[in-house]
C-alpha cells in the first residue's frame, strides 16, 4: 500500500508582489537654451537656487534687437501719418462731391430761369413779328425782338452745358473719393504689416530676458557673464536646467511576464496597484504609494513596461537621481483555498488533483486561479472538506489504496 502525504486544501490570502529597482525623476525638468544671439549680461540665479515661474534668470545683451524695435516703432508712426493724410484726401474729395452737387443745383436753377426767358422771348418775338407783318410796328423792332429770343435760347443752352460740366466734376470727385478710400485701406494694410513687424521685433527683444518656465530649482549651470550664446541647435548644451522637484516621478521597468498585471490609476473609483518604496539612503524608511500611470506598451528592446509613481515632495526625502527599491502588489486574493503545485496534475489541457475517499484515490477536476510561489488558488472543484494528496501526485493512480500521513 502506497503511503502519501495528504490533507485539506489550505485557506489563505495570496499576495503576488514583485520587487523592482526604480529611479527618481523630477516631475518636470527644462533645459534652458537661448533663442537669440548675444553676450550674457547677467546670470540672475545659481546652482541650487529656488526660482518662480516667470522669474528672470538670464539677461542677454543684444542691442541690435532694441534698434530694430525702435525702427519699427518709427515706421509705424510714419504709417499713422500716411493714414491721416489719405483720410484727409477722402474728406477733400467728399467736399468736391458736395461742391459739385451745389453747382448742379445752381445750374439747374439757372436753366429753369433761362428756359422761362427763352419761352417768353420766343413768344414775344412771334407776337411782334405778327404786328410787324401788319405794319403795327417797325421791322427794326421785330428784328430786335427776334435777336432777344435767339439770345435767350443761347442762355438756355449755356445753362444746360453748365449742368453737364457740374455733373462731370461730380463724377470726377466721386472717382477721387474711391481712389482716396482705396489709399486709406492700402495704408491701413501697410500699417498692419508694420504692426506685425513691430510685435515680432518686441518678441525677439523679449527673448533677451530668459525666464523660468516653472517653479523649481536650478539643477545645472553652464554659463557665465560675458559668454557668447547662440540660438539652440542640435547637441546644444543647456545654459541652465530648471527642475520642478515639488513632485517627483518614480519610474519602474516591469518585466513582460508581470506587465499585464500592473494597474494604474484611472478615473475614480479605480486606484492603481499599491507600491512600497524603500530608500537606499535610509533602508529603514519606507513610502507607501500607488502606481499612477504606465506607457501602455512594451519596449521593443528590453521587453518591459514603464510604470510611474507620482509623489508630492513636501519634505523632499526623494532627490531626483535617487535609486529606490519598489515592491508592487500586483494581485491579492484574500481567504481562498490553495494547494501546493506538487498536488496539481496537468494533462490534456486540464488541471486535476487526487482526493482520498475510503482509503482510495479519486481524480477531481479543478479550476485554478492565481499562482504565488508554490501555492495555487483553487477557484472551483474543492469545498475544503476533502483530503487531497499534497506531494508526488503524479506518482499515484486512480483507485489506488493509500495510507494517509498528515503534512509536517
Describe this structure in words.
This protein has 408 residues and is of the alpha+beta class. Among the domains are: 2-11 and 334-405, Beta Barrel (conserved putative lor/sdh protein from methanococcus maripaludis s2 fold), CATH 2.40.420.20; 34-58 and 208-234, RNA polymerase II/Efflux pump adaptor protein, barrel-sandwich hybrid domain (OB fold (Dihydrolipoamide Acetyltransferase, E2P), Beta Barrel); 64-205, Helix Hairpins (Orthogonal Bundle), CATH 1.10.287.620. It has helices at 63-134, 139-206, 256-259; strands at residues 2-7, 10-32, 38-43, 50-51, 56-61, 209-211, 216-221, 228-229, 240-255, 274-279, 286-290, 293-298, 304-312, 323-340, 345-347, 350-357, 360-372, 375-380, 388-389, 402-405. α1 (63-134) runs antiparallel to α2 (139-206).
Strand-helix topology:
Elements: E1 2-7, E2 10-32, E3 38-43, E4 50-51, E5 56-61, H1 63-134, H2 139-206, E6 209-211, E7 216-221, E8 228-229, E9 240-255, H3 256-259, E10 274-279, E11 286-290, E12 293-298, E13 304-312, E14 323-340, E15 345-347, E16 350-357, E17 360-372, E18 375-380, E19 388-389, E20 402-405
Parallel strand pairs: 1-20
Antiparallel strand pairs: 1-19, 2-9, 2-14, 3-5, 3-8, 4-7, 5-6, 7-9, 9-13, 10-11, 10-14, 12-13, 14-18, 15-16, 16-17, 17-18
Helix pairs in contact: 1-2
Approximate strand percentage:
35-45%
| CATH homologous superfamily classification of the domain at 64-205 | Helix Hairpins
Report how far the terminal alpha carbons are from each other. Answer: 21 Å
Major sheet:
13 strands, antiparallel
Alpha-beta content class: alpha+beta
What is the mean pLDDT? 86
CATH domain topology of the domain at 64-205: Helix Hairpins
Number-wise, the strands total 20
